[in-house]
Design a protein that fits this description.
There is one protein chain. With 331 residues, the chain is of the alpha+beta class. The protein contains 6 helices and 21 strands. A hairpin with a 2-residue loop joins strand 18 and strand 19. The radius of gyration is 20 Å and the shape is globular. The two termini are 25 Å apart. Bound molecules: flavin-adenine dinucleotide. Flavin-adenine dinucleotide binds next to strand 3, strand 8, strand 12 and strand 13.
């Protein structure tokens, strides 16, 4: 059996039948897609059970940087730790990823849900993504457009059955500091360089989010719901301070954290699990939690929000069971 405890930031004591640290494409050549799952550092997954198959842990760590006029083309192995890469690049004067500082996990997982924070989504900085298709056993390259990036989604997230293992992400970054500072908390200071933005982002995140090395969690458990504009306006007339952001002419994004707080779920403690005191959107493992405790609390929160606001929140974390990825509804 292969211990998955170091590969899930909820810190759950779960195992896979087998595990493989993938250091290059040659390690993937004999893998059976039907009986394997792909894992980075498990900061966006909830294992509800032991997994009866092979866990492929991405540990491809190649890095190549070339210059193209004002741009830097950064070809990063999918198993590199994204935050370490960001720090390394900023120290070399290569900017663009600073707002995404301190998001846990690997480079290879980042395009899957098009990670985002402080006004930047990683898809905007990606030139192409290289994958190894575990079914055809061929390399496939996706241009930025083919990645179909959207809010916490991409082609890779929409098509998990394709079993595409992301081996490399190619970024186009800049030597010029072009700060994106509209987000609350970043809009107050002037910043002389991108490293200063990184420091501020880390400080803001530390104030809001629990460190998974200390308290198990997988960041935001639910996505911010996107609802019909008229429905959002109706809610806004009842809850004046409700945050909402236009996505397009007909839909609005609501803040899941605010909905959960207002439904009375901030700082809840149910046995070994709870919602984080500074951010109710984060479910935490306070001790030796079992997977079903996390599921029960998340279902409870989902029901409270649905009965107060009529909104069915969708998990952001990916859910795995005995046979592989499963739907939230099946639990
Ligand atoms: C404290 C905390 C804060 C967070 N903050 C943010 C945030 O601000 N914004 C944000 O967007 N996310 C955030 N997250 C979520 C998470 O860090 C990201 O989704 C991250 O990209 C996951 O990386 P990982 O390597 O841990 O992936 P995993 O959790 O191991 O995998 C996530 C999914 O991606 C798939 N996957 C992983 N690697 C590959 C690969 N190489 N090829 C194909 N599929 C792959 C897996 O199969 C799985 O379905 C946070 C999480 C935590 C714990």
């Amino acid at each position: 059996m292969f211990d998955l405890s170091p590969y899930n930031t909820f810190g759950l004591h779960v195992q896979a039948r087998e595990g493989l640290l993938v250091r290059g494409i040659s390690d993937l050549k004999n893998v059976d897609a039907e009986n394997s799952i792909i894992i980075g550092r498990g900061s966006d997954v909830l294992f509800t059970d032991d997994y009866d198959g092979l866990a492929l842990i991405n540990d491809i760590r190649d890095l190549k940087i070339t210059q193209d006029q004002d741009s830097f083309i950064v070809e990063a192995g999918g198993g590199l730790i994204l935050d370490e890469l960001i720090e390394d690049l900023l120290n070399q004067g290569i900017c663009g990823l600073e707002n995404l500082s301190a998001i846990p996990g690997t480079v290879g997982a980042a395009p899957v849900q098009n990670i985002g924070a402080y006004g930047v989504e990683i898809g905007s900085l990606i030139e192409r993504v290289e994958c190894f298709d575990l079914r055809s056993h061929k390399v496939e390259v996706f241009s930025k457009d083919q990645c179909e990036f959207g809010y916490r989604t991409s082609y890779f997230k929409k098509h998990p059955q394709r079993s595409l293992f992301i081996t490399k992400v190619v970024f186009r970054l800049s030597s010029l500091f072009n700060p994106i500072l509209e987000y609350k908390g970043l809009d107050e200071d002037g910043f002389s360089d991108a490293l200063k933005v990184r420091e501020k982002v880390i400080e803001l995140r530390e104030g809001k989010l629990p460190d998974p090395k200390v308290i198990g969690n997988a960041g935001c458990f639910f996505k911010n719901p996107i609802v019909d504009k008229d429905f959002a306006l109706k809610l806004k007339s009842k809850y004046e301070n409700m945050p909402s952001y236009y996505v397009d002419d007909s839909s609005c994004k609501l803040a899941a954290g605010w909905l959960i707080d207002t439904a009375g779920c901030k700082g809840l403690i149910h046995g070994n699990v709870g919602t984080w005191k500074n951010q109710a959107l984060v479910i935490v493992n306070y001790g030796d939690a079992r997977p079903h405790e996390i599921v029960s609390l998340a279902k409870y929160i989902q029901c409270e929000v649905a009965s107060k606001f009529g909104i069915d929140m969708e998990p952001e974390v990916r859910i795995y069971g005995h046979k592989g990825e499963i739907s939230w509804e099946s639990l």
